[in-house]
Amino acid sequence: MRHRRTYLLALFALVLALLAAGCGGGDGGGEGAGEGTSTAAEGGNEEISGSITIASLWTGGEGKSFQAVLDAFEEQYPNVTVKYQAAGNNLPTLLATAVEGGNPPDLAALSSPGLIKQFVDKGALTPVGDAAKGAIEENYSEGFINLATFDGELYGVVFKGANKSTVWYNVQAFSDAGVEPPETWEDLLTAAETLGSSGIPAYSIGASEGWTLTDLFENIYLRTAGAEKYDQLASHELPWTDQSVKDAFAEMAKIFSDTDNIAGGTAGALQTDFPTSATQVFADPPKAAMVFEGDFVQTFIETETKAKIPDQANVFTFPSVNDSAPAVVGAGDTIVIFKDSPAAQALVEYLASPEAAEKWAERGGFSSPNKNLDESVYPDDTVRKLATELAGAETFRFDLSDLQPQVLNDALFAQLAELVKNPDNIDGVAEKLESVAKKAYAK
Q1: Could you tell me if 389 and 414 are in contact, meaning their C-beta atoms sit under 8 angstroms apart?
Q2: Residue 398 belongs to some domain of the structure
Q3: How are beta strands 203-204 and 290-292 bridged, if at all?
Q4: Across the strands, what pairs with 86?
Q5: Is 90 exceeded by the pLDDT of residue 21?
Q6: Of 139, 317, 418, 443, which one has the fewest beta carbons inside 10 Å?
């Protein structure tokens, strides 16, 4: 254990060093740091120079796609160098430590508005300047602007959206079992039994990463409890011990208790990360028939497997539960500035443009909140369908866990993993979450 701890500390220090690399090379804040006179997307700006670092959790195919966006920015700003650091799911912890140490990256992509608020309260973030703000207001709806607005100040651009109300499935596995993509929760559970009987586990679950479990909970809860209670729970006006929460946990438990129908069983699920949970459904041979997760699964299918969409890999909308109306749980990654400089402001302005969104959209695995992005740039009908469902959802709610204080977010990850291990412990999980929530919201 001691050797493992020493190794982890060394690795932690290394990643922090990587995050900090290049942060000091950019131009200082100075006058006009947030006031561009030309639109970033128009390009050819040689007046701004410097080296900046941006950190995010995007790895694998997502990391490559974001790098393509940054490469396009550097073409527009030939005297600016952008160093990208993919920190994975440890990003919040690494950033918190870097901020405390006084050496954060210049920018970061944060998936949690709650985390952004914490950094705002610490005085760690810089509001966007006039040029970037103008680009954001031109290209984004009020709802997405509000996600990055705190105390009347706009702190970033929601560059990447996500439709998380989707289930990806292996077409051949469904066909061999004689099942169709289900439209209701009961039909899904029945299809899972049929798939299991055909010789393939129905579910692939990446339970080593708690956010995959919160996504499943949020989709079920929005459908069983409704949007009003979803909002109340998100702001802790409703306790985690409310019966509506326990009812949603009970629906989740129907999956977790079906151990033989989970790839690797309970133990395997708890050791499976998100990328593996997605790709193993489309391996040859597949290890499971379907995986609950968002539109971004497409990137992993296309870059990490040989499966082709839609003939071998396809997607269906998260099923209705108890005759619930259609609803979408979504998320977004917001680019924020820790170290102000003309280069950092120019990057935010560029990322707010339709041109920047197009660079990733044309590669797939990406839903843009940019209202002025031409939908024709999406590479196929599958991606276009998911993106339009996100943009046109009658009932849309932001990822509930990402709205929570970080301590409660962490507790959600841990307690839903506990529910995977012990599906009967619904009351215990609810009580633990409420205990953490009371303390978090009392601050």
Answers
A1: no
A2: no
A3: parallel
A4: 56
A5: no
A6: 443
User: How much is the pLDDT for 44?
Assistant: 56
Half-sphere exposure in the Cβ direction for 75 (13 Å, CA)? 11
| Residue at 388: amino acid letter | T
Higher pLDDT, 366 or 67: 67
Return the amino acid letter for 140: Y
Cβ-based burial of 9 (10 A; exposed 0-12, middle 13-18, buried ≥19): exposed
Each residue of 143-201: pLDDT tens digit?
789 889 999 999 999 999 999 999 999 999 999 999 999 999 999 999 999 999 999 99
The two tokens of residue 247 are 């009812």
Hey, is 208 helix, strand or coil? Answer: coil
Phi then psi for 421, rounded to 5 degrees?
-70, -40
Interatomic CA distance for residues 105 and 95, integer angstroms: 8
On whether both 240 and 375 belong to a single domain, the answer is no
Please give the C-alpha separations between residue 27 and each of 41, 42, 340, in angstroms, as whole numbers: 20, 21, 8
> Domain containing 262 — which CATH number?
3.40.190.10
* Cβ proximity of 64 and 71 under 8 Å: no
* Residue 26 forms part of a structural domain: no
195: containing domain? 166-326+404-442
| pLDDT score, position 396 | 85
Residue 137 lies in a domain: yes
Same domain, yes or no: 65 and 185: no
- 292 in Cβ contact with 316 (< 8 Å): no
User: Based on the domain organization, do 278 and 310 belong to the same domain?
Assistant: yes
Q: What is the pLDDT of residues 265-287, one digit of tens each?
A: 999 999 999 999 999 999 999 99
- Alpha carbon distance 370, 136 (integer Å): 9
Pairwise CA distance, residues 236 & 233, whole Å: 5
Q: Are 231 and 403 in contact (CB under 8 A)?
A: no
Residue 271 domain-assigned (yes or no) = yes
CB 319 within 8 A of CB 305: no
pLDDT (average), residues 129-135: 98
Shared domain for 336 and 309, answered yes or no, is no
In this prediction the pTM is: 0.74
Residue 209 shares a structural domain with residue 241: yes
Phi-psi region of 43 (alpha: psi -120 to 50; beta: other; left: phi over 0): left
CA 399 from centroid of its chain's CA atoms: 9
